[in-house]
Amino acid sequence: MHDQLRRLFSMDHSLPLDMTLNDGTVIHIRAIGPDDCCLLSQGFAQLSQDSRFMRFLGAHPTLSNAELDTYTAPSDTDHVAIGAMAGDVPVATARFVVMKDLTRAEIALTVVDAYQAKGVGSALLRTLAAIARERRITTFLALVHAENRPMRDLLRRFGAKRIRKEGTEEELELDLNTLSSP
Fold this sequence. Notes:
The chain has helices at residues 2-9, 37-45, 49-56, 65-71, 120-134, 149-157; strands at 17-20, 26-31, 79-86, 89-98, 104-111, 139-145, 161-166, 169-175. The protein has 182 residues and is of the alpha+beta class. The longest helix is centred in the C-terminal third of the chain and has 15 residues, at 120-134.
């Protein structure tokens, strides 16, 4: 998988693409669109209560219809959403929303519990960064629960720095021009 990530990091890419994880699992990464509400709901159902809490920074037992519509209706200009499948199983989503200055974007990344710590998050973060750089975005910002060690560690392996901590939340900044290779 590391060779695949290095190639992705250094090339213009197009979606969809397949990647093989270190354990041999093949994931299919593609854009999320309006027809993916059922897949998003299936993926959400695979998240533990703790994973939902960490992703949404609080209790979040269900996704509302409005959230499903928002999460599956990215635009070409300011909202990019991608997902990963392992066969017919949705295993992760990643997205960014471009901020007003057009050089920064807020990101969110979710990996279902059964696929955490397998390299899916790294693959999606690399893919999202490649798309962002094509759009001249230079910085990712992520708001992360202070107890979400896996997400903080993932972002830090890529070179992210904490820029703010307030209560139980940390904001991390990732410079896409100096993105580290984990």
